[in-house]
Protein backbone atom coordinates (compact mmCIF):
# COMPACT_ATOMS: atom_id res chain seq x y z
CA UNK A 1 0.00 0.00 0.00
CA UNK A 2 1.45 3.37 -1.03
CA UNK A 3 1.65 5.82 1.86
CA UNK A 4 3.86 8.75 2.73
CA UNK A 5 5.25 6.71 5.59
CA UNK A 6 5.20 2.97 6.12
CA UNK A 7 5.47 0.85 9.23
CA UNK A 8 8.64 -1.24 9.32
CA UNK A 9 8.84 -4.79 10.71
CA UNK A 10 9.58 -3.67 14.26
CA UNK A 11 7.11 -0.80 14.38
CA UNK A 12 9.51 1.95 13.27
CA UNK A 13 8.64 4.50 10.59
CA UNK A 14 10.68 5.16 7.50
CA UNK A 15 11.06 8.57 5.92
CA UNK A 16 9.37 9.56 2.68
CA UNK A 17 11.18 8.28 -0.39
CA UNK A 18 10.31 11.37 -2.40
CA UNK A 19 10.47 15.14 -1.93
CA UNK A 20 7.73 17.57 -2.89
CA UNK A 21 9.11 20.85 -4.25
CA UNK A 22 8.18 23.90 -2.16
CA UNK A 23 5.21 25.96 -3.39
CA UNK A 24 6.13 28.63 -5.92
CA UNK A 25 5.77 32.20 -4.62
CA UNK A 26 2.72 34.10 -5.82
CA UNK A 27 4.91 36.90 -7.15
CA UNK A 28 8.62 36.44 -7.69
CA UNK A 29 10.20 39.62 -9.06
CA UNK A 30 13.61 37.91 -9.18
CA UNK A 31 12.44 35.87 -12.16
CA UNK A 32 12.30 39.00 -14.30
CA UNK A 33 16.07 39.42 -13.94
CA UNK A 34 16.94 35.82 -14.76
CA UNK A 35 18.02 34.73 -18.24
CA UNK A 36 16.59 31.24 -17.61
CA UNK A 37 13.14 32.85 -17.29
CA UNK A 38 13.38 34.50 -20.72
CA UNK A 39 14.86 31.34 -22.18
CA UNK A 40 11.78 29.50 -20.92
CA UNK A 41 9.50 32.09 -22.55
CA UNK A 42 11.31 31.67 -25.86
CA UNK A 43 10.95 27.89 -25.55
CA UNK A 44 7.20 28.19 -24.93
CA UNK A 45 6.82 30.58 -27.86
CA UNK A 46 8.72 28.39 -30.32
CA UNK A 47 7.09 25.16 -29.11
CA UNK A 48 3.57 26.58 -29.49
CA UNK A 49 4.47 28.01 -32.91
CA UNK A 50 5.66 24.60 -34.11
CA UNK A 51 2.65 22.88 -32.54
CA UNK A 52 0.17 25.08 -34.39
CA UNK A 53 2.13 24.98 -37.63
CA UNK A 54 2.16 21.18 -37.86
CA UNK A 55 -1.35 20.53 -36.54
CA UNK A 56 -3.23 23.22 -38.47
CA UNK A 57 -1.36 22.27 -41.65
CA UNK A 58 -2.47 18.67 -41.04
CA UNK A 59 -6.11 19.74 -40.65
CA UNK A 60 -6.06 21.83 -43.83
CA UNK A 61 -4.25 19.10 -45.76
CA UNK A 62 -6.85 16.55 -44.68
CA UNK A 63 -9.75 18.78 -45.78
CA UNK A 64 -8.08 19.37 -49.13
CA UNK A 65 -7.57 15.64 -49.65
CA UNK A 66 -11.23 14.77 -49.01
CA UNK A 67 -12.54 17.66 -51.12
CA UNK A 68 -13.27 15.14 -53.87
CA UNK A 69 -15.88 13.52 -51.60
CA UNK A 70 -13.74 10.43 -51.04
CA UNK A 71 -14.49 9.39 -47.43
CA UNK A 72 -11.23 7.42 -47.33
CA UNK A 73 -9.07 10.29 -48.56
CA UNK A 74 -6.47 11.94 -46.39
CA UNK A 75 -5.26 11.04 -42.94
CA UNK A 76 -8.73 11.07 -41.40
CA UNK A 77 -9.71 12.05 -37.86
CA UNK A 78 -7.34 9.41 -36.52
CA UNK A 79 -4.44 11.05 -38.34
CA UNK A 80 -5.37 14.50 -37.06
CA UNK A 81 -5.53 13.16 -33.50
CA UNK A 82 -2.09 11.58 -33.98
CA UNK A 83 -0.72 14.89 -35.27
CA UNK A 84 -1.87 16.75 -32.15
CA UNK A 85 -0.87 14.03 -29.68
CA UNK A 86 2.42 13.29 -31.42
CA UNK A 87 3.47 16.92 -31.55
CA UNK A 88 2.71 17.37 -27.85
CA UNK A 89 4.82 14.30 -27.09
CA UNK A 90 7.74 15.62 -29.16
CA UNK A 91 7.56 19.22 -27.93
CA UNK A 92 7.08 18.38 -24.25
CA UNK A 93 10.05 16.04 -24.52
CA UNK A 94 12.15 18.81 -26.08
CA UNK A 95 11.17 21.68 -23.78
CA UNK A 96 10.33 20.08 -20.43
CA UNK A 97 13.83 20.70 -19.10
CA UNK A 98 13.75 24.35 -20.10
CA UNK A 99 10.24 25.66 -19.49
CA UNK A 100 8.35 22.65 -18.19
CA UNK A 101 6.82 22.11 -21.64
CA UNK A 102 3.39 23.62 -20.94
CA UNK A 103 2.52 24.72 -24.53
CA UNK A 104 -1.02 25.41 -23.32
CA UNK A 105 -2.46 28.24 -21.16
CA UNK A 106 -4.84 25.76 -19.50
CA UNK A 107 -1.93 23.60 -18.35
CA UNK A 108 -0.12 26.69 -17.09
CA UNK A 109 -3.28 27.82 -15.27
CA UNK A 110 -3.69 24.44 -13.57
CA UNK A 111 -0.06 24.40 -12.46
CA UNK A 112 -0.41 27.95 -11.17
CA UNK A 113 -3.44 26.99 -9.06
CA UNK A 114 -1.39 24.11 -7.64
CA UNK A 115 1.42 26.56 -6.78
CA UNK A 116 3.83 24.92 -9.24
CA UNK A 117 4.58 28.23 -11.00
CA UNK A 118 4.41 31.86 -9.88
CA UNK A 119 1.84 34.36 -11.13
CA UNK A 120 4.51 36.22 -13.11
CA UNK A 121 5.65 33.07 -14.88
CA UNK A 122 2.08 31.91 -15.50
CA UNK A 123 0.99 35.19 -17.11
CA UNK A 124 4.12 35.50 -19.22
CA UNK A 125 3.89 31.86 -20.34
CA UNK A 126 0.31 32.44 -21.49
CA UNK A 127 1.35 35.53 -23.46
CA UNK A 128 4.24 33.65 -25.10
CA UNK A 129 1.98 30.70 -25.92
CA UNK A 130 -0.70 32.88 -27.52
CA UNK A 131 1.85 34.82 -29.56
CA UNK A 132 3.48 31.57 -30.65
CA UNK A 133 0.12 30.17 -31.71
CA UNK A 134 -0.72 33.26 -33.76
CA UNK A 135 2.68 33.15 -35.49
CA UNK A 136 2.37 29.42 -36.13
CA UNK A 137 -1.01 29.75 -37.83
CA UNK A 138 0.24 32.83 -39.67
CA UNK A 139 3.04 30.70 -41.10
CA UNK A 140 0.49 28.13 -42.25
CA UNK A 141 -1.51 30.84 -44.03
CA UNK A 142 1.63 32.20 -45.68
CA UNK A 143 2.55 28.77 -47.06
CA UNK A 144 -0.97 27.57 -47.86
CA UNK A 145 -2.69 30.81 -48.90
CA UNK A 146 -4.60 29.06 -51.69
CA UNK A 147 -6.29 26.66 -49.30
CA UNK A 148 -6.17 28.35 -45.89
CA UNK A 149 -9.44 30.29 -45.97
CA UNK A 150 -11.16 27.78 -48.25
CA UNK A 151 -10.77 25.03 -45.68
CA UNK A 152 -11.52 27.04 -42.55
CA UNK A 153 -8.01 27.82 -41.36
CA UNK A 154 -8.07 25.04 -38.78
CA UNK A 155 -10.27 27.18 -36.53
CA UNK A 156 -12.28 25.63 -33.70
CA UNK A 157 -16.04 26.01 -33.76
CA UNK A 158 -19.08 24.24 -32.35
CA UNK A 159 -20.15 21.75 -35.01
CA UNK A 160 -23.71 21.43 -36.25
CA UNK A 161 -26.02 19.31 -34.14
CA UNK A 162 -24.36 20.09 -30.81
CA UNK A 163 -25.57 22.58 -28.21
CA UNK A 164 -23.40 25.13 -26.46
CA UNK A 165 -23.66 23.13 -23.24
CA UNK A 166 -22.40 19.97 -24.94
CA UNK A 167 -19.48 21.85 -26.47
CA UNK A 168 -18.56 23.47 -23.17
CA UNK A 169 -18.81 20.14 -21.37
CA UNK A 170 -16.57 18.47 -23.96
CA UNK A 171 -13.91 21.14 -23.47
CA UNK A 172 -14.12 20.90 -19.66
CA UNK A 173 -13.83 17.11 -19.55
CA UNK A 174 -11.20 16.98 -22.30
CA UNK A 175 -8.99 19.53 -20.53
CA UNK A 176 -9.51 17.75 -17.22
CA UNK A 177 -8.13 14.55 -18.78
CA UNK A 178 -5.10 16.42 -20.14
CA UNK A 179 -4.23 18.41 -17.01
CA UNK A 180 -4.89 15.45 -14.70
CA UNK A 181 -2.44 13.44 -16.82
CA UNK A 182 0.14 16.24 -16.58
CA UNK A 183 -0.10 16.24 -12.78
CA UNK A 184 0.09 12.45 -12.57
CA UNK A 185 2.98 12.11 -15.02
CA UNK A 186 5.08 14.72 -13.21
CA UNK A 187 4.18 13.75 -9.64
CA UNK A 188 7.41 13.23 -7.62
CA UNK A 189 5.63 10.60 -5.52
CA UNK A 190 4.86 8.54 -8.63
CA UNK A 191 8.46 8.90 -9.83
CA UNK A 192 9.72 7.48 -6.55
CA UNK A 193 7.18 4.65 -6.29
CA UNK A 194 7.54 3.60 -9.94
CA UNK A 195 11.30 4.08 -10.24
CA UNK A 196 11.60 0.45 -11.38
CA UNK A 197 9.31 1.26 -14.34
CA UNK A 198 10.88 4.02 -16.46
CA UNK A 199 8.02 6.31 -17.51
CA UNK A 200 8.68 9.03 -20.05
CA UNK A 201 6.35 11.82 -18.86
CA UNK A 202 5.71 13.31 -22.33
CA UNK A 203 4.36 9.96 -23.56
CA UNK A 204 1.19 9.75 -21.41
CA UNK A 205 0.63 13.49 -21.92
CA UNK A 206 0.78 13.06 -25.69
CA UNK A 207 -1.54 10.05 -25.51
CA UNK A 208 -4.01 12.05 -23.43
CA UNK A 209 -4.14 14.71 -26.14
CA UNK A 210 -4.54 11.99 -28.77
CA UNK A 211 -7.44 10.29 -26.98
CA UNK A 212 -9.27 13.53 -26.23
CA UNK A 213 -9.06 14.52 -29.90
CA UNK A 214 -10.59 11.22 -30.97
CA UNK A 215 -13.56 11.90 -28.69
CA UNK A 216 -14.16 15.61 -29.26
CA UNK A 217 -13.11 16.45 -32.84
CA UNK A 218 -16.70 15.75 -33.98
CA UNK A 219 -18.06 18.15 -31.34
CA UNK A 220 -15.79 21.21 -31.25
CA UNK A 221 -12.83 20.26 -33.40
CA UNK A 222 -11.11 19.88 -30.02
CA UNK A 223 -9.72 22.96 -28.34
CA UNK A 224 -8.46 22.05 -24.83
CA UNK A 225 -5.81 24.68 -25.52
CA UNK A 226 -6.90 28.35 -25.54
CA UNK A 227 -3.76 29.41 -27.42
CA UNK A 228 -4.51 26.95 -30.23
CA UNK A 229 -8.08 28.26 -30.58
CA UNK A 230 -7.05 31.92 -30.34
CA UNK A 231 -4.23 31.63 -32.87
CA UNK A 232 -6.51 30.06 -35.48
CA UNK A 233 -9.27 32.62 -34.86
CA UNK A 234 -6.95 35.64 -35.05
CA UNK A 235 -5.42 34.64 -38.40
CA UNK A 236 -8.69 33.45 -39.99
CA UNK A 237 -10.57 36.42 -38.47
CA UNK A 238 -14.05 35.38 -39.58
CA UNK A 239 -17.25 35.55 -37.59
CA UNK A 240 -17.66 31.80 -37.25
CA UNK A 241 -14.22 31.56 -35.68
CA UNK A 242 -15.14 34.12 -32.99
CA UNK A 243 -18.75 33.14 -32.24
CA UNK A 244 -17.85 30.29 -29.87
CA UNK A 245 -14.37 31.46 -28.88
CA UNK A 246 -15.40 31.86 -25.24
CA UNK A 247 -16.09 28.10 -25.03
CA UNK A 248 -12.44 27.42 -25.83
CA UNK A 249 -11.28 29.59 -22.94
CA UNK A 250 -13.90 29.02 -20.24
CA UNK A 251 -14.06 25.25 -20.78
CA UNK A 252 -10.30 24.57 -20.62
CA UNK A 253 -9.79 26.85 -17.61
CA UNK A 254 -12.62 25.19 -15.68
CA UNK A 255 -11.31 21.73 -16.60
CA UNK A 256 -7.78 22.68 -15.53
CA UNK A 257 -9.03 24.07 -12.20
CA UNK A 258 -10.98 20.89 -11.46
CA UNK A 259 -7.97 18.73 -12.33
CA UNK A 260 -5.68 20.79 -10.09
CA UNK A 261 -8.15 20.55 -7.18
CA UNK A 262 -8.71 16.82 -7.68
CA UNK A 263 -5.03 15.93 -7.83
CA UNK A 264 -3.78 18.24 -5.09
CA UNK A 265 -6.60 18.06 -2.56
CA UNK A 266 -8.17 14.66 -3.16
CA UNK A 267 -5.41 12.36 -4.43
CA UNK A 268 -2.51 14.07 -2.68
CA UNK A 269 -4.63 15.20 0.31
CA UNK A 270 -2.94 18.60 0.49
CA UNK A 271 -5.69 20.07 2.67
CA UNK A 272 -5.53 17.15 5.13
CA UNK A 273 -1.73 17.38 5.35
CA UNK A 274 -1.87 21.13 5.90
CA UNK A 275 -4.46 20.69 8.66
CA UNK A 276 -2.41 17.93 10.28
CA UNK A 277 0.70 20.12 10.22
CA UNK A 278 -1.24 22.99 11.77
CA UNK A 279 -2.56 20.77 14.56
CA UNK A 280 0.94 19.39 15.27
CA UNK A 281 2.36 22.90 15.58
CA UNK A 282 -0.57 23.95 17.72
CA UNK A 283 0.01 21.17 20.26
CA UNK A 284 3.78 21.74 20.54
Compact description:
The protein contains 11 helices and no strands. The protein has 284 residues and is an all-alpha fold.
Class by SSE composition? mainly alpha
Strand content: under 5%
User: Total strand count, please?
Assistant: 0
- How many helical stretches? 11
Q: Major β-sheet, in short? A: none
Tally of individual domains: 1
Secondary-structure element pattern, one letter each:
HHHHHHHHHHH
The CATH homologous superfamily: Glycerol uptake facilitator protein
Ends: how far apart?
30 Å
Helix content: 55-70%
Protein architecture, described:
The chain has 284 residues and is mostly helical. The chain has one domain (34-266): Glycerol uptake facilitator protein, CATH 1.20.1080. The chain is 64% helix and 0% strand. The protein is built from 11 helices and no strands. The protein has helices at residues 35-65, 76-95, 105-113, 119-143, 164-185, 188-193, 202-220, 226-236, 239-243, 247-267, 270-283. The two termini are 30 Å apart.
Task: Give the topology, please.
Blueprint: H1 35-65, H2 76-95, H3 105-113, H4 119-143, H5 164-185, H6 188-193, H7 202-220, H8 226-236, H9 239-243, H10 247-267, H11 270-283
Helix pairs in contact: 1-2, 1-4, 2-7, 3-4, 3-5, 3-10, 4-8, 5-7, 5-10
Keywords: Acetylation, Membrane, Transmembrane, Transmembrane helix, Transport
Main location: membrane
GO cellular component, one term: membrane
Amino acid sequence: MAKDTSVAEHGSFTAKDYTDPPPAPLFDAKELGSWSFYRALIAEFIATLLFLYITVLTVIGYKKQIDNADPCGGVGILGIAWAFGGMIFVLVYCTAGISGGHINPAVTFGLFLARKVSLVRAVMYMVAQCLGAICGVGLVKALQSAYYVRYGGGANKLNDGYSTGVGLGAEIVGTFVLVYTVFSATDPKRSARDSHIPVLAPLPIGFAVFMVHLATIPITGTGINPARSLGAAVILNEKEAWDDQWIFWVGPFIGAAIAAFYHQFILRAAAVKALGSFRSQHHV
